[in-house]
Design goal:
Amino acid/polyamine transporter I, membrane, mainly alpha, manganese ion transmembrane transporter activity
Length: 393
């Protein structure tokens, strides 16, 4: 593989993971928790970043060394588990992709004043067009990188229009006044949970960047992905903190819009439209791509025509949103169940990390495994608590 092609795939995988994480829910969560926790939300972000890195280091390395997709690894760890994992990923992916398409529609509406359904249909067509190309893989890489840079640049611009208290944010990131464990779970699950856990790793696998000889590149890409998503999170947090400390209440129906409108007026609304569209369309692409990678090893026909299955996934998501709308109750239920995907997936990966029939002679770092088990146990406990609260109302 040419060095330039390899470097593009490495950076593309990082941004695919990052932009998959940064969807409409990501923007809303950040604004909501900033209003609730103030500057102390910086501590939650810091803890979640460390946990995210622990997750991705384990997952990406084991997939790269084994040269197998997550569902294949799961079936080797426990026969049939790969099908369970694939079902969880697909169920959550389809439900959330409907929300992602909806977010893209809202973005088009903010910029051009169209109806959300029209914006969603236009966005769906753009996403489909990318996968119609024979160079879909490299197009996905370049599109993810472009949208990632657009997101970062626009949000940084908004930060300086809201004048946040940088010093207080820095202090409370280390010494918080409030700590919200459920906020940490929400952020970790939203950044590296569900299909996002495997998006970048599966992209590197498809690009042929595997084996122990490529571990430095795999490690670099996994950390780049987390840092890219985290940079967007931090700057959005600062933008929201700027308006929150001025006593401005977040808009109830669209909290993430608040700093854009407050800081820049009507121009801010347009910029927000671009931001949420970029966040949503890349999540649509990342979700569809990753979800279908969980089907490709089940039948040669799917592997051969994976592009068309991805297109079908996007088309179904778009049509469901256009005809039925975003099914809120389904999204809440699937989102709650999706929280269990991360501990299940990590458990599979951490067991696989010490199975010679999966990873051969590779020696997985003990510190990395310990870190992984810590995240697994913490997320499992808190996910069960969340589901219990949901069931009992």
């Amino acid at each position: 593989m040419k060095t330039t092609t390899k470097n593009s795939a490495i950076l593309g995988a990082a941004f695919l993971m990052a932009t998959s994480a940064v969807g409409p829910g990501f923007l809303t969560q950040t604004a909501t928790f900033t209003e609730r926790l103030g500057a102390s939300f910086g501590f939650v972000i810091l803890v979640s970043i460390l946990m995210d890195i622990g997750v991705q280091l384990n997952v990406w390395r084991v997939i790269a060394v084994s040269k197998l997709k997550a569902q294949e690894i799961a079936n080797l760890v426990m026969p049939g588990m790969g099908y369970v994992l694939a079902a969880l990923i697909l169920m959550g992916g389809l439900a959330f992709n409907i929300g992602n398409i909806g977010g893209a529609g809202l973005g088009v509406q903010s910029v051009f004043g169209t109806e959300p359904v029209a914006g969603a249909l236009i966005s769906g067509v753009i996403a489909v067009a990318i996968f119609l190309s024979k160079e879909a893989g490299s197009l996905v890489d370049r599109f993810a990188q472009l949208m990632g840079f657009v997101l970062i640049a626009l949000i940084i611009y908004v930060v300086f229009s809201t004048n946040p208290p940088f010093a207080e944010a820095a202090v409370r990131t280390i010494a918080p006044e409030k700590i919200d464990a459920m906020a940490i779970v929400t952020l970790v699950g939203g950044t590296v949970g569900g299909y996002i856990t495997f998006s970048g790793a599966h992209r590197l696998l498809d690009a042929g960047i595997t084996g122990q000889e490529n571990l430095p590149a795999v490690t670099k890409s996994s950390v780049q992905g987390i840092l890219a998503a985290s940079v967007i999170r931090v700057f959005l947090f600062l933008a929201c903190l700027g308006v929150a400390t001025q006593g401005v209440a977040m808009l109830a129906d669209n909290p993430a819009l608040t700093p854009f409108v407050h800081g820049l007026g009507d121009t801010g609304r347009i910029i927000f439209g671009v931001v949420i569209w970029a966040a949503s369309i890349t999540s649509v692409i990342g979700c569809a791509y990753t979800s279908v990678t969980f089907l490709t090893n089940f039948h040669p026909f799917i592997a051969k025509h994976s592009r068309y299955f991805i297109i079908g996934f996007i088309a179904i998501s778009t049509l469901v949103f256009a005809t039925i709308g975003r099914p809120a109750q389904v999204l809440v239920l699937v989102g709650t169940l999706n929280g269990l995907v991360l501990p299940i997936a990590l458990t599979i990966i951490l067991i696989a990390a010490y199975r010679k029939n999966i990873i051969g002679e590779y020696k997985h770092p003990v510190w990395m495994a310990v870190f992984g088990w810590f995240v697994t146990i913490a997320m499992a406990i808190l996910s069960v608590v969340t589901i219990y609260k949901y069931l009992v109302g």
